């Protein structure tokens, strides 16, 4: 079914990971890969048994950004780049941001340009110590895309977002952690075991509540305080009507570990 990515399931099918599988090009993005990533999220977020999704890379890199040959293979016109953005990149950004399931990036190596943003548009990123991030768009005379001009200022503030965008400087995983760009960094030799501990936790978490959290967090930057408080009330009511909430309360009263089912 997939040519450019590989899908693996873990934890009795609760977790699905899409591995970018073009290591010879350092997992550079092309139209087929972008389409398949969209299809992956679209298909797996709708499966009831799936509780968490993740994106990672095969080989030495997470993703080296747009495959320039893929662009040059088409007849360039004034709107060709915009068409690629509108047809392939932008739908994927929205699909990840709006998915009701948690989507985590496992950054196993360099993440450059659109590859860096593919990692950073996920709900949070976990990286190896040897990984780095670069907004390398400026190196070929382009602007950050894949949600870069939206997410970077929100993650970093205007000053640092502009600095990274204007210079394309490489940011190590440890520095990215200090900046608040990513959530966790683990030594390369411990990356798989440590990251999978987090993924296992998410795969057994109250999934519907996490989806509601995503909705609330995404609206916070555009809402007034009053509007956000109203939204919290609405979403909290929805959360309180789930079976997971009932299970959480019962487990607390019975002094046991809750068994959530994402229902």
Automatic annotation (TrEMBL):
<dbReference type="InterPro" id="IPR014748">
    <property type="entry name" value="Enoyl-CoA_hydra_C"/>
</dbReference>
<dbReference type="Pfam" id="PF00378">
    <property type="entry name" value="ECH_1"/>
</dbReference>
<dbReference type="InterPro" id="IPR018376">
    <property type="entry name" value="Enoyl-CoA_hyd/isom_CS"/>
</dbReference>
<dbReference type="GO" id="GO:0003824">
    <property type="term" value="F:catalytic activity"/>
</dbReference>
<protein>
    <submittedName>
        <fullName>Enoyl-CoA hydratase</fullName>
    </submittedName>
</protein>
<comment type="similarity">
    <text>Belongs to the enoyl-CoA hydratase/isomerase family.</text>
</comment>
<dbReference type="InterPro" id="IPR001753">
    <property type="entry name" value="Enoyl-CoA_hydra/iso"/>
</dbReference>
<dbReference type="InterPro" id="IPR029045">
    <property type="entry name" value="ClpP/crotonase-like_dom_sf"/>
</dbReference>
């Amino acid at each position: 079914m997939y040519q450019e990515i590989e899908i693996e399931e873990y934890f009795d099918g609760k977790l699905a990971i899409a591995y970018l599988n073009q290591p010879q090009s350092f997992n550079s993005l092309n139209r087929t890969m972008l389409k398949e990533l969209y299809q992956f999220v679209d298909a797996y977020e709708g499966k009831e048994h799936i509780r968490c999704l993740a994106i990672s890379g095969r080989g030495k890199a997470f993703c080296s950004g747009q495959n320039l040959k893929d662009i040059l293979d088409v007849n360039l016109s004034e709107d060709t780049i915009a068409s690629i953005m509108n047809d392939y990149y932008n739908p994927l950004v929205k699909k990840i941001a709006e998915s009701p399931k948690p989507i985590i990036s496992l950054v196993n190596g360099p993440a450059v340009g659109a590859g860096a943003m593919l990692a950073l548009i996920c709900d949070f990123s976990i990286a190896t110590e040897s990984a780095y991030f670069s907004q390398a768009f400026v190196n070929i005379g382009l602007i950050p895309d894949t949600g870069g001009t939206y997410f970077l200022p929100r993650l970093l503030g205007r000053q640092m977002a502009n600095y990274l965008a204007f210079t394309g400087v490489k940011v190590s995983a440890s520095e990215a952690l200090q900046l608040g760009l990513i959530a966790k960094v683990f030594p390369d030799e411990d990356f798989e075991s440590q990251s999978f501990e987090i993924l296992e936790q998410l795969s057994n978490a109250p999934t519907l509540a996490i989806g509601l959290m995503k909705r609330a967090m995404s609206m916070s930057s555009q809402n007034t305080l009053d509007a956000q408080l109203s939204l919290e009330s609405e979403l909290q009511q929805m959360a309180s009507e789930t079976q997971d909430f009932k299970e959480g309360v019962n487990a607390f009263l019975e002094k046991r570990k809750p068994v959530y089912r994402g229902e």
